[in-house]
Design brief:
Strand content: under 5%
Number of strands: 0
Largest sheet: none
Low-confidence stretches: 1-35
Distance between the termini: 26 Å
Helix content: 40-55%
Shape: globular
Structural class: mainly alpha
Radius of gyration: 22 Å
């Protein structure tokens, strides 16, 4: 998201121009918006009803009415939609990964080039702690690459009318031989009807929301026994720091 913030700061430079140009800037942005297919708060209300007919539209903080970084509310909605889908997908991976590691399941081969094996643990966060910081830096570097690729290689940015959650395919012009299409790796999505795609979107959003609640519940119970009564006695205690990704802080002591 740091890369996204940098691009937004560059794109909002018009906010610092003399007031005599403000009218032209607003007119230009309004015209550009008219040529895009942007979601509005009304669209969110319709989607919310599909996701949860009982709860419906729930936005107590009024985020859908905000204008982040001097953008329009519609552009802000695009950012929020992308963020929710992305965090939901990561949480689904984390939720399943937690269960896998908690049951001592791991790859049979070496974890690192020096022959260090994958750890056999019953407490999932300890599996991450056992990875060397050098390997963690590589993981975060790859994540950073994926973030940059998403931001700069999409046909249309998600804050400019693009589809939230869509990940651009790896182009053979930049990556020799190309690579797996992470958005639709098996080509199933492109052959589905629009109705099936819409239903799948609702399922993904709901599963992602539940996964975010689930993984935080696991981490909370592991750190504070009894904080999640339904998981008491199921999740083992964890003495480490789940919010600290590295064994040593990358920031100097203050």
């Amino acid at each position: 998201m740091k890369f996204l913030l940098a691009s937004l700061l560059a794109g909002s430079a018009a906010a610092f121009t003399p007031s005599s140009f403000n009218g032209a800037a607003v007119t230009q942005r309004t015209a550009a918006k008219a040529s895009m297919s942007m979601e509005t708060s009304e669209d969110l209300a319709v989607l919310a009803k599909k996701c949860n007919p009982v709860l419906g539209y729930f936005d107590p903080l009024g985020l859908a009415k905000q204008s982040f970084w001097d953008t329009t509310p519609e552009e802000t909605i695009g950012f929020l939609r992308e963020s929710e889908i992305k965090h939901g997908r990561i949480a689904m991976f984390a939720f399943v990964g937690y269960i896998v590691h908690a049951n001592g399941i791991h790859f049979p081969w070496a974890m690192q080039m020096d022959g260090t094996p994958f750890p056999s643990v019953s407490n999932a966060p300890e599996a991450w702690d056992s990875i060397s910081d050098a390997a963690k830096y590589q993981i975060f570097a790859f994540i950073g690459f994926l973030e940059v690729w998403r931001e700069v290689m999409s046909d249309k940015h998600y804050m400019k009318g693009g589809k939230p959650g869509e990940f651009p395919a790896f182009d053979s012009r930049y990556i020799p031989g190309g690579a797996l299409n992470l958005y639709d790796p098996f080509g199933w999505h492109k052959n589905r009807s629009e109705e099936a795609k819409a239903a799948g979107l609702v399922k993904e959003i709901n599963n992602g929301r539940l996964a975010m609640i689930g993984i935080l519940g696991f981490l909370s119970e592991g750190k504070m026994a009894g904080s999640v009564p339904a998981l008491k006695g199921i999740i083992p205690a964890y003495s480490g720091e789940p919010m600290a990704p590295f064994s040593e802080s990358i920031f100097p002591s203050l």
